[in-house]
Amino acid sequence: MTNHDPRPPRQAGIVGAGSIGVAFAICFARAGWRVRLYDPDAARRAAAPEEVALRLNDLTQFALLDESANDIAARVEIVDTLEAAAANADLVQECAPERAELKREIFAQLDRAAPPEAILASASSFLAASKFVDETLAGRARCLVAHPGNPPYLVPVIEVVPAPFTSGAAADRAIALYSEAGMKPVRVKQEVEGFIFNRLQGAVLREAYCLVRDGVASVEDIDTVMREGLGPRWSVIGPFETVDLNTRGGIASHAQKMGPSYERMGAERGQHDPWTPELVAQVAAARREALPLDQWDERVGWRDRELMQLARHRKTMNRDDS
Known about the structure:
Layout: E1 11-15, H1 19-30, E2 34-38, H2 42-61, H3 69-73, E3 76-79, H4 82-86, E4 91-94, H5 100-113, E5 119-122, E6 143-148, E7 157-162, H6 168-180, E8 184-187, H7 197-213, H8 219-234, H9 239-246, H10 250-268, H11 277-290, H12 296-321
Parallel strand pairs: 1-2, 1-4, 2-3, 4-5, 5-6, 7-8
Antiparallel strand pairs: 6-7
Helix pairs in contact: 1-2, 9-10, 10-11
């Protein structure tokens, strides 16, 4: 990758050299950033370079890198202290286990070690920053959660979750930095456990477990429905656009026709959350802003062509594996 930007490259500090920490190192290094990766476990630090190299080689095999794996790996430096990882960083990504006390201690250390303008972000999957950023921390306004998909170099969405004490400027800067690194940030407007990713995933898993428990379907059949049905569609468009394109007249028409059935299914599980007219109107307005109804047929055709490309790819992969 040729960098014509006269500014010095961005620098990321990563605390935690497990699978997510290594994956973040690849994301930032692939985007041209300098990366300093730290783990308190010497064995993890020793293993990290080989893991980075293996994953970069896999990405090379699928033509997903714009430059050589060696050039990217050279941007990742393994360091022996948290302070070295945080020094001169634009952003520090904490990737420690999901324990509030441990994260509280790490963030206190990072606040002392990182430059004042650096963003301090946790890769927490469920814990909000309010649960582990101490109220006495001088730099708490630059602390937030940035929860990635796994692995982030293949699943680029990252949930930026400010705490009530996070400054708007810090949240905006975090979103800008992750965008520079080639990720797809979304802003979570409230600190809710599990954020967006795991709440959506959890809703599917809860129902999947119930269907197995109730004898409705086998584990394999449920995976088949997801893999061959919902999964391909959702890899192209999300759930709102899916139902918007499934029904002529768009999402308002879908809600009118199907809403009562979904309400009954929810109530059956003890979750009575009907789609009120006001809520449907809010969602429909967002969809109509994104896609006017006079463009509906054109978008349905686009969806089908995207699914055709995916089907062709899967057919080719199945043929190659046989």
